[in-house]
User: Fold this.
Amino acid sequence: MSRIARLRLVLATTVTAGALLTGCGQPATPPLSDIASVAPAPPPTSSSASSSPVSSSATPSSATADDDAVVEAATVADGDVVGRPSGTRTVTRIVDGDTFEVDGGDRVRVLGIDSCEAGTTRGGAATGAASLVLYGTTVTLSTEPGIDRDGYGRMLRYVAMNDGRDFGRYMVALDHTGVYEGRNDANAGYVRSLRAADPNGRICGTDTTTTPRSSEQPKPAPKPQSAPAPRTTQAPAPASSGGGAAYYKNCSAARAAGAAPLRVGEAGYRSALDRDNDGVACE
Assistant:
């Protein structure tokens, strides 16, 4: 028998009993135990529905993102870890193809590469190529152990672009940038990778010829036959150059003589050879 049917039966019995006992002075209210035994059970509360555990998959985990960020910061390019990441900076000015400035005013000289100087035929193309991928972007700078700044205060760094590619390898693949052939502070493995990525050396045009791909310096050109009257094969340096007695018509002549790069105060240095006015000519 259902609860409702039982309740109705109890109530009917109670009414009948009450009517019979009214004349005897007995109470018409049924015992509480009878009513309680047939009262319907209270409906389930909503608390049980909300007590179910929340799936752990609903809360995203940041561990994977953090790990990826660490790997991305350490990976300079092409799967190779180059140097030690020292932080990210925003590029605020492009000096030329291998030198730029970052927020805070520091000037960065890219390790391992040598772009055509500003003012040469291909110098503008080198500066434009660097501007296209660097200007206004955030780059990752990495240090070579034991190397920090050059004598002019420039930070010597490997540079990873904001898409993760190595800037040095990107530039040497173009004809206006080659592997730096002077004292190269980049590690030997990185320099080998630059040579592998450099199909044509550096072709600058005016004042500059193709950068030799070998570490050997080119042989000096033969001296011209002297005229009947004795004369020197080198013109005296202008008094304002501050570069001593040596004189080189252009950077090709300086490299041919094994004198490049020329720094302020060294024999043969003059401002006409220092296109970006950073104190280093024919770099």
Notes: Residues 5 and 276 are 103 Å apart (CA to CA). Confidence is low (pLDDT under 50) at residues 20-41, 44-79, 208-219, 236-242.
